[in-house]
Amino acid sequence: MAQTQAQSPVGAHQETNGKMSNNKVKITLTDLNDDLSPVTFEIDKPTDLIQAKISSTNDFYERPLLDIVGSITPADSVFLDVGANIGNHTLFMAAKTRAKVLSFEPNKDNFGRLIKNIELSKMTGSVEAFNVAVGKQAGVVRSIFSSQKNTGGAKVQSTNKDDELGVPLIKIDDFLKKIKLKFTGKLIIKIDVEGMEVEVIEGMTSTIEEYQPIIVCEASSDKNIVLLRNIPMKRGYIVAASFFKSPTFLMVHKDNASSVFPHILEHSWSSARSYVSYCELSKMKVRAQKAIADAAEILK
Fold it and tell me: Which stretches make up the Methyltransferase FkbM domain (predicted)?
């Protein structure tokens, strides 16, 4: 077993299958502290952003964020992975927290990779995957790649039901009502949908009111950064933390902030990676504390 860089708690081994012209490498990630079930990814597109990151680091993509989200996810929780791609966040949460995971991925190529990785990781009992897109209204869309070097950058466009590449467009509110979701832990919703994040949130307003879920959402533009701060805030949400350049916001309802915030601080420090300095984390702590105070004042 090859061990990764000193700061990473993950070990890995690789297997290569197929001919040299069409190699597929299987990478199995295992936690050295024995609190993460083994997760296996099949790397079939080594130039892809997420696959390249997993392959080059022998670790999960966006691991600092995953560590924090995992730490605030108790037993019998439900994790919705909206824009699951090949299953990076899906499989981490299933392996780390034992939460029930529902994954949504509209791109057929990525969905095939997602299913393969779920099977390789022996997670079929705890993960359900759906080849659908998520937005604010029902319909039909097709998913297309904007760049062959980033399959996570696939975007959707409207189409009709006769399109063989078309997939259903659903609302989270409708979906959860249909399956009659039951759980005793928390509902966590991660959203990474390349520009449709506002539409996804607009399609889950009833879910927000009923469950007060933890929301982890990437903002793809300056406009959406503003909207993602304002729309949830009207329903009592605050931005508890922000990650990466995109950025990705971790949003919680103000009534739940006191139970979540200590975990964010603790695991931010312990999960720091080479590209997140202690200085930056310290600034994040101050910003997050100020955000809570400001939001509490506004929402009185």
Answer: 81-223
Confidence at residue 276, expressed as pLDDT on a 0 to 100 scale? 46
Residues of the chain with pLDDT under 50: 1-9, 17-21, 147, 271-279
| Closest-CA residue to 66 (of 44, 37, 93, 86) | 93
Beta strands in the chain, from DSSP E residues, in sequence order: 2-3, 10-17, 24-31, 39-43, 78-82, 100-104, 127-130, 133-134, 139-144, 155-158, 166-170, 187-191, 214-218, 237-243, 248-253
Q: Strands across the sheet with 139-144, in order?
A: 133-134, 166-170, 139-144, 155-158
**Does the structural domain 61-135+166-298 have CATH classification 3.10.129.10?**
no
Could you count the other beta carbons within 10 Å of the beta carbon of residue 34?
7
**Rounded Cα distance, 50 and 60, in Å:** 9
| Residue spans per domain, the chain | 61-135+166-298
**What tens digit of pLDDT does each residue of 152-175 get?**
555 666 777 767 778 999 999 999
- Main-chain dihedrals φ then ψ at residue 240, nearest 5 degrees: -85, -25
- Please answer whether residues 234 and 205 qualify as being in contact, where contact means their C-beta atoms are separated by less than 8 angstroms: no
pLDDT digits (tens, 9 = 90+) for 235-249: 999 888 888 777 898
Residue 288: φ, ψ to 5° = -65, -40
State whether residue 110 is helix, strand or coil.
helix
Tracing tokens 């696959």 back to the chain, one arrives at 51
Asked whether the beta carbons of 155 and 146 are under 8 A apart, the reply is yes
Kindly report each contact of residues 295-298 with a partner whose C-beta sits within 8 Å and lies 24 or more positions away, as own/partner: 295/233, 295/237, 295/238, 295/254, 296/238, 296/254, 298/233
